Amino acid sequence: MTKPSVLWIEDSARFELRNLVGPLFFSGEYDFNLAEDVTSAMYLLRAKEYAGIIVDIRLPPGIDPEWRRHYRQSGYDKVHSQLGLKLLYWLLGKDRSIHPEAPPAWVKPAGVGVFTVESQPEIQKDLDALGITVFRQKAAGLPDTILLELIRELLNQARQA
Amino acid sequence: MIGMPYDAIATFLVFLIGVPALVIQSLDAEIRRAVLKKPRALVVGVGWPIAAAMLIVAMGSLLLAAEPASAPVAVSTAPEPQAQIAAAVERLAAQADEDQRVQSQRERVWVAVTFLLTFLSVVAAVYIPNRFGQRDRVITDLKRVAQKSQQRARLNDDALTTLIELGEQSQPGEDKQLVLDALGELALGVRQDTAYRGDSLETLIEGLKNIFASDSPPGNPDNFRAAIGILQEIIMTPAARAESRSTDLFYAIRALSEVSRSALAHLQHPTEIERTLMVCAGWLQSATRLHPAATTEVSQALFEIGVAAMEKKQVLAATAALDALFSLVEANQPAKGELVADALGLASHFWTEGEAARGYVQVRLVAAKGELAQTWRQALGTAHKHCAQTMQFGTADKLAEMMADIPKR
Asked: Which residues on A lie below 8 Å from B367 (Cβ)?
């Protein structure tokens, strides 16, 4: 049986990256990819199916003109543009007004989690609309194994769905 | 020409010739080289203010030449001396009036000429530094010319080469980044063209590699990230996917390995690039889903990046490369050949790194045991032979060490 593939879409894990990703590699349980912007995430989602996708809400657009347009319209500010949320609406809501390309059909809400600095109440309405139930807020004091735990929870949920 | 303000005109001409000369002299060497490579554009850009100045002076001179000469004053024929004196006085007065009129006409013309020359000098003083003295303008011009190829989904090699040379000679940081951004936009334009068949970007890919070659000023982390990003996108581009033997794909994989290793070799603090290399390993592995024919190239690139990362103690990047290699082994069961040699070769670097790294890799090796076409001993022997044959003697020695250790465990 092949290892489940997991994609983490995250641009700002600079200092804690080794601590967060180290346990994941050490476990040897997952085929792990990291995308640093929305365009990169799209490329990877085109290339293969992932059992789990973890998305940050604040993401840079990358080089794709359509994502750059959203970013420009929000005043070149990744906090306000919330491209992660737009990506989720494109992926799960199949909203082609966000990006004209067809989203991959295999992405289901049960296989998608959110790991972000926004608090849950701030985006709960969107999470409900998208059917996402796995959420963690990035905050001080999180254990180094948080990403591994999040992935395990997500894949467990996806299996049960 | 009587009345022509030679001093003022000479001053303006010296200014109009001097401004471009000063601007070109004050450019950074690499920008000056790029500007001088396009002599026609330079002559036109620098020459038109001088030509316009000469035209203005010529028009002023023509205006004066076309001006009717002072009307001759009639000589008096009166016999009386008083009348003759009065007539002479009148004649002199008329002559003086006429001279005054001509003089003021000349003054008006030269004032207009001087005003126009002043205006032209101001325009030239703004235009020439803006046109030739700004790095981003020079790069934008080169990019525009590079896009003007006679064929679709192709680039003008001449302008592209000049742009790449500019990137090679530019200082790390913002200067290099401007060129890299332009190259990224050129690559994107070609990749988005429906006529793209995966074989148009060889010069650009080679150029990206050369920009970070050892004899160029090395880039900063952002520069390396930008180059790696461009290459990653070429690898993942749909047009290249359609062509199973896309040459751009293979060039891009090799260039990705070289640029990544260059980043590890050149950066004083390679930790800044560790994350990018980790991402790069994931992309390379994912690319084999799109291009299974490229698995050997990808595994070699992962091996090279992993070994370079281990040598620089960038364990996260090295681990990501090893993890990607084992995922490839898993996806290509029963795995054999260079893929296994690369995976075991990189594993041997972990094996000889210390107890903790050895423990980590041992778990991975045990998990991968059933995924190989050969037994461990055979696979290690094949990998050892492969590394020795390809002059990777250091890795071959580590594999020999690993082979010697394994029966003991």
From this structure: 28
